[in-house]
Amino acid sequence: MEYYFADRKSNILGVGSTDGKGEWRIDNDIETQSVDNRPAVELSLDIKFTTDQEQAVNEMAKETNFILYQDEEGNGHQMVIESVEHDSLGHIHSIVASDAGNDLINETVGAFKADKPYTIAEYITRFTNDSGWEIGINEFPDNVRTLEWTSEESSLARIIAVAKDFDAVLSFGFEFVGTNLVKRVINIRHETAGDSLISFEMNKDINNIVTHRDTYDMETSIKAYGAVPESTDGSTNKDPINLIGYNWTDPTGQFVLDQYGFLHDTIAVQKYSRLLSNSNPNPTQSDWNRVKTFDSKSQAALLQAALADLKKYNHPNETYDIDLVNSPYVPLNQTVHIADENQQLFLSAKVLSIQRSRANHSVQLTLGEFAHETVSFDERLSELANQMSNISKTVQYYPWLRYADDDQGTKMSAFPSGKKYMAIVWSNKTSVPSDNPADYAGKWALIKGSDGADGVPGTKGADGRTSYFHTAWANDVSGQSGFTVSGGDGKKYIGTYSDFTQADSTNPSDYNWALFKGEDGDVGPKGDQGLPGAKGADGRTAYAHFAYANSQDGKTDFSTTDPNRKYIGFYSDFSSGDSTNPSDYNWSLIKGADGADGKDGVPGKAGADGKTSYFHIAYADSSDGKTNFSLDTPGSRKYIGSYTDFTQADSTNPAVYSWQLVQGPKGDTGPQGPQGPQGVQGTPGSKDVPFPYVQLDAPANPKKGDTWWHGTSLKDATAVQRYDGSKWVDDAIAQAVLYIKELNSIILNSAEINSPNINVPFQHVSIAGSGILSSGSLTLNGASYVISGNIEDTNGKPNGQIYHTEVNPDGLLSYITQTDGTTQMHTSRISMGVLELTDLVSGLGNSAKYITSTFNAHDAVDYYHKDSGLETNDVKNLNISYSRKGPNVTIGIAFQMKTGNGWVKIADIRPGYSPFNSDDAARLLGSMSYTGAACELYVSAGGIYIIPWRGQGGYAGSLSFITHDAYPTNDAVVN
Q1: 723/717 Cα distance (integer angstroms)
Q2: Which residue has the higher pLDDT, 395 or 941?
Q3: Of 435, 464, 461, whose CA–CA distance to 376 is shortest?
Q4: Cα 752 to chain center, whole Å?
Q5: What span, in angstroms and rounded, lies between the C-alpha atoms of 482 and 493?
Q6: Could you read off the pLDDT of 279-294 as tens digits, one per residue?
């Protein structure tokens, strides 16, 4: 970094450098910026000098002189030296300087009340009048406010107050021609807060983390007062605005505004009330009350101020002191991430101040506004934990978890932010995870789909609550007829489900229904031979079967005898033996996993204490369970009993079970039925004519050529077979053209479909590589191919997000929305050789703000051109090389001086390579011929200029900057 020292007339007196190569050596330079002190910038530095240089350094770097420099982000600075400390013995000249904008602290402005709405530029111009400052960049050209100040203050304090009212951020800018300051501007911009995706890890980037917690400012309710309203009738003694009588309802139900103007947090009071006890687990009174005053001038504004304050202080305050070892430069107000895996502490924080030293190559960040982050883990962690339980206890294993950009471990990090892959390795070496990607080879798994950041919410973990198994009974498969939860005697169907609510649901649709009592079959007399009819119910004995497992599909730890499992499976049929095929059962969760403590969850009513619950089943031949009571012979008993408690062993007391009939008595032979009606007269034929059977069971005594339609009617037939004289063989319908109104569940092989419109709906399908469920449709409509649908949670319920991908002759369009279903979060377009990417920055709906970038073939190549052997009146042997990729330009230059003229143009800038917005780019070129000699190089849209310090010798160097010129397509392309 080079610092230029100038007098009050902007005459350059010397140049200092942090790399020790210039005339003056700069040490311990510290540039300080902070959120609270914006737009001001502070600078302190030490200048090393020799005895011969002592008088010169006192003249060059004295108080009120200027320091000029350009930072790494391309911002120009003019600093005013405010204080000097000169150490003759130590040969160190120390100075403290502040941004020249701080000169506005010396201007005073009085009270002011706007007579109409003004823009921010109009306010700042008014309060900096005759100061030499102009408005530069203005991102608020049309916003207006009617503002008032009742006291006197400095011009700087006033424009900072204006910016705060407009939610704007100010910065001072300086425009130079050469080293001459030509303009001082005040830039007005939007806040650029965002996620830097930069992470700091304990024992790598962090020395220590000290945690502080206190309740000094806590509150669970607030009585808010605002400003005193202006008098409209000349009266005095007005009371300040309060919230009494204001009508407002919180859509979440957490916050309640009562008739006395108190705003309550109904969740926080249950956690922190003084009345909290085992006998009163959910108190609603005895708040932590606070009375506070705000500047709000309306009840609506006062409500929002009070609500923001209550949300800020409704929990203990938690702050951290973080000792960073290594930190890159991060802009103010950007978010960074902190991880201490030993404490399982994962935080996000905002950058509140920056101290940057170019001489020491260091950056110190001050962090604040800490928030806890949740790190989601792959389900494989649970599987690995189960595997680890079988490993010898004499060996200690530790989980290593890392994230990366690809399956090779590129840019590996302990944080998931912005990463697509995750690896888990168990090590018996150390509890500190390795940072060598080779240790995770072959373990990487994709955890982030192609739609990028701000992904779809993952699966909610089990919360350790007590689960309950519910049963109901009814007379039909829908559960609507004869529904009851109090007893199953005489009912034909049983319904089951499990959840975390003790009370049984009275909604039949919540249950999974299965037949467990068959109909009593009737036996009629032998009648005249006719077409075979549908097979009737046979009065066989129905059996209820139960099994247990540790997974939702029943395949993990399947058992029909050991109920110590997380899931119960149920089905009924006419076979007394239990099936050993898990897919035959309908599975329900009956034992929840012990979950981690959630963050600030909504307190529920007092529940069980989180102990493991057990579901018990017994069997008997009487409704009280006393006859032939058994724990392990379900196939030969008529009644089933069940109960749930926290004891693993099954009770042998029939009285503790709830008993239900599951096997009805065998029906007696029914009376003879009436004579059936005369059948339709058939077409006369011979006995050899093939006969079509429509029935479920195989026809008796078929003859060759007979056909058998499997079903109760042609409408519901599932197959057709033909008898070849010895056995039934599959048959097919041979038809050249079929005219069918609707086809269901059809497989087409080797088919050509001629249709301009095709619609393929899908329900609850898993999106490949993500485990996320979705419902929607795939449509082909003319030349347009569209896939659209919604994102669902693990229960198949839409979470509000919509995605849409469309391919048409113009190209491809793809986007996904926020959970409001309308605000597009990520959008990509490919059309006619151009890729356009758009990301949501903030807001929703009409208030949404986006950033958009485009990319084409020109952006991916390097352009190159070289001019050699040029000569002017001032230089000779001039060689200029131009290179460009995208907007980034580098110019290399070498020449021999012929004269000592200053500020001379030595060449025109080549089209396609000029600096953006006509700004100069500059650097100091060292002489290759004379020690200490230098030449200032400037590049602008108007040409290439130099200011030599010596009219002889050779100079060479390079300069990089940004351009918005059209691409120089005639120059050489380097791929």
Answers
A1: 17
A2: 941
A3: 461
A4: 43
A5: 10
A6: 888 898 889 999 999 9
* Dist. CA 949–CA 682, nearest whole Å: 120
pLDDT at 221: 95
Token pair recorded at residue 661: 């009939």
313, amino acid identity: Y
Could you tell me if 18 and 69 are in contact, meaning their C-beta atoms sit under 8 angstroms apart?
no
Termini Cα distance of the chain: 33
**Which amino acid would we find at residue 43?**
L
**Maximum average pLDDT range among 374-383, 590-599, 762-771:** 762-771
Tally Cβ neighbours within 10 Å of residue 825.
23
Residue type, 3: Y
Measured between alpha carbons, how far is residue 65 from residues 7, 70, 547 in Å?
5, 17, 87
Are 519 and 546 in contact by the 8 Å Cβ rule? The answer is no
Query: How many residues are recorded in the chain?
Result: 975
Strands 362-372 and 398-404: unpaired
Residue 92 pLDDT greater than 80, yes or no: yes
pLDDT of 68 over the 60 cut: yes
How many CB atoms lie under 10 A from the CB of residue 29? 22
Q: Which amino acid is at 616?
A: H
* Strand 824-831 versus strand 811-817 pairing type: antiparallel
Dump pLDDT digits (tens) for 569-614.
877 777 778 889 998 887 766 655 444 443 333 333 334 455 666 7
For residue 212, the tally of other CB atoms under 10 A from its CB is 9
Give the 3-state secondary structure percentages of the chain, helix then strand then coil, rounded to 5. Answer: 10, 40, 50
Smallest Cα–Cα separation from 180: which of 68, 257, 95? 68
Q: Is 903 helix (H, G, I), strand (E, B) or coil?
A: coil
Are 472 and 479 contacting, i.e. CB atoms less than 8 angstroms apart? Answer: yes
Q: Give the strand order in the sheet containing 421-427.
A: 398-404, 421-427, 444-446
Q: What is the DSSP string of 793-854?
A: -TTS-EEEEEEEEEEETTEEEEEEE-TTSSSEEEEEEEETTEEEEEEEEE--GGG-EEEEEE
Work out whether strand 567-573 and strand 798-808 pair parallel, antiparallel, or are unpaired.
unpaired
Which contacts of 896-900 are long-range, i.e. CB under 8 A and separated by 24 or more positions?
896/953, 896/954, 897/935, 897/948, 897/950, 897/951, 897/952, 897/953, 897/954, 897/955, 898/873, 898/874, 898/951, 899/873, 899/874, 899/951, 900/948, 900/950, 900/951, 900/952
**Residue 272 confidence (pLDDT) above 50:** yes
List of E strands, 648-732: 658-661, 692-695, 707-710, 719-723, 728-730
User: Pick from 196, 195, 199: which is nearest to 414 by CA?
Assistant: 199
Beta bridge partners of 371: 348
Tokens of 545: 């079967």
What are the backbone angles phi and psi of residue 400, rounded to the nearest 5°? -105, 125
Residue 389 CA to residue 399 CA, distance in Å, equals 13
* The 692-695 sheet, strands edge to edge: 692-695, 707-710, 719-723, 728-730
Residue 121: what residue type?
A: A
CB count, 10 Å around CB of 813?
Answer: 17
DSSP H helical ranges for 76-119: none
Range 656-660 average pLDDT: 82
Block residue for tokens 């962690």: 381
Alpha-carbon Rg for the chain, nearest whole angstrom, is 41
Tell me what pLDDT residue 606 has. Answer: 39
